[in-house]
Design goal:
eight-stranded mixed beta sheet, single chain, 760 residues, alpha/beta, globular, 24% strand, seven-stranded mixed beta sheet
């Protein structure tokens, strides 16, 4: 009995005093990525995203550890199936990855039957997510993409009939089905479907197909059919002018100079290479109608191949743009570039990070097995229960795909950029209620918020405003006051009626000396432009940890006063920004070292007292453009005013070794005077700087000096105490050794502090 009691007691003590690591369970998560084959580069980028996430959670989430088991699926369905069987056999609690739609579809049933939650990092294949309730994707599915294209055509372009040029291979059939179904609901008819096979588009494919379709084709007379929608063409909706206006609007069909076709828009579905060929053929045939491409065209390869894209009105759907991102995504992209040693971060990397986060947050909440992780994922079924990921709010629709907002991109100056008009889903319950009740004709709310209807579905007609800032002069860098005075030029490019007058600077200080005057303005039919010359004072918390070796970012943060990102999105006008150095920076202790510009969405931690606030799903995210002027402090004056006096005081304190050891009072007075002088000098230096709650690099120099001076004082006292107990020659050698060590250590400490100032 006593032995059993002792055993029980020891067990209780073991449980009570066990470390968290001893009690933690290890949750095994499978990661399937294409680390070989044609997609190996993307796979390695996704693997790096996993490593960055592992670093962010430091290997621990709540009470549990996560073991990430990475396997190569080669984006091959057969290999993916073998990997899935391995994962199920080893008893993983969840799986992420399998970014290929074909691979995701192949393995979905395996995971569903085994009860293992599977989150694809990039698949758009609805056949995968519809397999069962254990299959998810952090991407939208093809149906959402098709529906948004149809809604854009109806709500923005007011199109009646469209021509679909598509391949039914891969995702093509599903997209055509979605466009046709949604088009019927919103009043857009798919007039004809011209089919082709991916990779087999001839140079005369479109000419031959239209000739057969139009019964002779090429006839530019009004009787040949309805002409291009000129007013909705170049620069009309969503993109800048590209070759001038060729039409006068919907009412002037048949008057276009290009080939007349009986359709209001063209949608191209297929692979990027075939799509580029068709776009080039449309341009050569001078067909003047808006053209849409699916997100398979949102690649650099398509942009390079579609040489004629700049002469047509082309919009491309996409699941992501690095110009319209969250603040977290911007920071991740910068980290990724440094870690990968590249100039860009693939979209798949951000999506993979979000997939890992979805599973990781389930583990953080206490999930340690497949059933618990599945319950966590299933619970993210609305915006109010979503997870704030890199790419936005992550929550799943009824089919298991993420409810993600498709974007529309244009090709401008050889790059993919957000179109001037976006279409975003309306979540405001007041607007939804008005639409449902039919009160839309005279609704001030719908008009004020730029809401358009596609059938019975309301969408925000979101304005994209390209914004830029060029710095002119820095009148004052006031470190003590935590502010700076700046003169600069700011401008906006946009389409339509956009309230740019209420775009303001979030960190501005309203002073009498501030000015804001219109310098240039051009209100055109396709593109509006306004430029301001601004002078103002702005607040910023200077980071002085590295003072006086510090770099400082002087930020200008710009956002609309009342319009959130559903109504206005600010995008950096990278093409217009100047890299010219700023020479006029006052006081003259700073040098210009470049600039850093980005725009991102931020969700303020407030409800604004809105009575209709219903949770995270209705929180207002505001688009903020931030432009940072980077300056570096000139170090030379501080060599004279800071380091030279400090060095002189250290050297003077060494004179103690020249004073006879019998004169203890004189030696102690010298060292104490040097210490007090350094202390007074330190306090005087701090008067010109703000009070901060951390040590600056200059403080570290002074602290090191205090320690050295304390050791010197201790040596003087110790030598005096040993004067009558130790032989004179031994004391002499002791002081000589101490002096050498003191000098060497002093140099080593100051050099180390200086090196870390430039490298740390």
């Amino acid at each position: 009995m006593s032995a059993r009691f002792i055993h029980t007691l020891l067990l209780m003590f073991a449980v009570l005093f066990a470390t968290p690591a001893a009690l933690a369970a290890t949750v095994k998560v499978g990661v399937a990525l294409p680390l070989s084959g044609d997609s190996a580069e993307d796979g390695k980028a996704q693997q790096l995203a996993i490593e960055l996430y592992k670093n962010d959670i430091s290997g621990r989430l709540g009470e549990h550890d996560i073991e990430w088991v990475i396997r190569d699926d080669g984006n091959d369905p057969a290999t993916a199936e073998a990997v899935a069987s391995e994962f199920v056999g080893m008893g993983v609690a969840a799986v992420i990855g399998h970014p290929s739609g074909a691979a995701a579809e192949k393995v979905a049933k395996t995971y569903q039957d085994a009860g293992v939650p599977f989150v694809s990092s990039y698949s758009q294949n609805p056949a995968a997510t519809k397999t069962g309730d254990h299959v998810y994707s952090v991407n939208y599915d093809l149906q959402v993409q098709g529906e948004r294209i149809a809604a854009y055509m109806a709500g923005v372009l007011k199109a009646d009939t469209i021509l679909v040029i598509g391949s039914e291979e891969g995702d093509g059939k599903e997209l055509i089905r979605a466009i046709t179904k949604k088009g019927g609901q919103v009043g857009v008819e798919v007039g004809e479907v011209l089919k082709f096979k991916n990779g087999k588009v001839s140079d005369t494919f479109l000419k031959d197909a239209l000739k057969e379709l139009l019964g002779g084709g090429g006839d530019k007379s009004p009787g040949a059919g309805r002409g291009g929608r000129g007013g909705q063409g170049k620069g009309g909706q969503g993109r800048p002018p590209a070759g001038g206006d060729k039409g006068k609007g919907k009412g002037d069909k048949g008057k276009s100079e290009g080939l007349e076709i009986p359709f209001d828009a063209i949608l191209i579905i297929g692979d990027a290479a075939s799509g580029a060929k068709i776009v080039n053929q449309i341009a050569r045939m001078n067909i003047d109608v808006p053209i849409f491409g699916t997100d398979s065209f949102a690649t650099d390869e398509f942009v390079q191949a579609a040489k004629a894209s700049k002469t047509v009105d082309l919009l491309i759907t996409s699941n992501f743009s690095d110009r319209i991102i969250t603040a977290a995504a911007y920071k991740f992209i910068q980290r990724f570039k440094v870690a990968a040693g590249t100039d860009e971060a693939p979209v798949q990397a951000l999506f993979t990070y979000d997939a890992a986060m979805l599973v990781g947050e389930a583990v953080r909440a206490g999930a340690s097995d497949a059933a618990a992780i599945q319950a966590s994922l299933a619970g993210r079924s609305s915006a109010d229960t979503s997870l704030s990921g890199l790419t936005g709010l992550l929550h799943f629709g009824k089919n298991g795909a993420t409810n993600r907002q498709p974007l529309f991109l244009m090709i401008y100056k050889g790059a993919l950029k957000p179109a001037y008009t976006q279409l975003r889903e309306v979540t405001d319950k007041r607007i939804l209620r008005e639409v449902k009740s039919g009160a839309t004709e005279d609704s001030p709310r719908l008009k004020d918020h730029r809401v358009v209807l596609a059938g019975d579905t309301p969408y925000y007609k979101t304005a994209v405003v390209y914004t830029g800032i060029d710095f002119y002069r820095v009148n004052q860098v006031d470190v003590a006051g935590q502010k700076f005075d700046l003169e600069f030029f700011s401008w906006y490019h946009f389409q339509g009626d956009v309230d740019t007058e209420n775009i303001s600077f979030l960190n501005a200080v309203n002073e009498e000396t501030s000015t804001n005057e219109v310098l240039r303005q051009d209100v055109g039919a396709n593109l509006n432009y306004v430029c301001y010359k601004v002078k103002g004072t702005y607040l910023t918390p200077y980071n002085l940890r590295n003072f006086p070796f510090d770099f400082q970012a002087l930020p200008l943060k710009m956002a609309h006063k009342t319009r959130d990102s559903n109504e206005i999105i600010l995008v950096v006008d990278q093409d217009g920004l100047s890299d010219a150095p700023i020479r006029d920076i006052y006081p003259e202790e700073w040098l210009h070292r470049g600039r850093a510009d980005f725009s991102a969405s931020f969700i303020p931690d407030t409800t604004f007292g809105d009575p209709m606030y219903m949770g995270l799903g209705n929180r207002s995210a505001f688009s903020v453009y931030e432009s940072n002027l980077i300056v570096r402090r000139i170090i030379f004056p501080y060599l004279i005013t800071l380091f030279l006096p400090l060095g002189i005081m250290i050297v003077i304190s060494l004179f103690v070794f020249l004073i006879n050891r019998d004169q203890f009072d004189a030696r102690l007075t010298l060292t104490m005077t040097a210490l007090l002088s350094i202390l007074v000098f330190h306090l005087a230096q701090g008067e010109s700087l703000p009070s901060v709650g951390y040590l600056m690099k200059a403080d570290q120099y002074f602290i090191a000096t205090y320690i050295l001076m304390f050791s010197l004082i201790f040596e003087v006292i110790a030598v005096n105490a040993l004067h009558d107990k130790v032989a004179e020659n031994k004391l002499l050698w002791l002081e000589r050794i101490f002096a050498v060590v003191f000098v060497v250590v002093s140099f080593a400490v100051y050099i180390a502090l200086t090196v870390t100032a430039f490298t740390g």
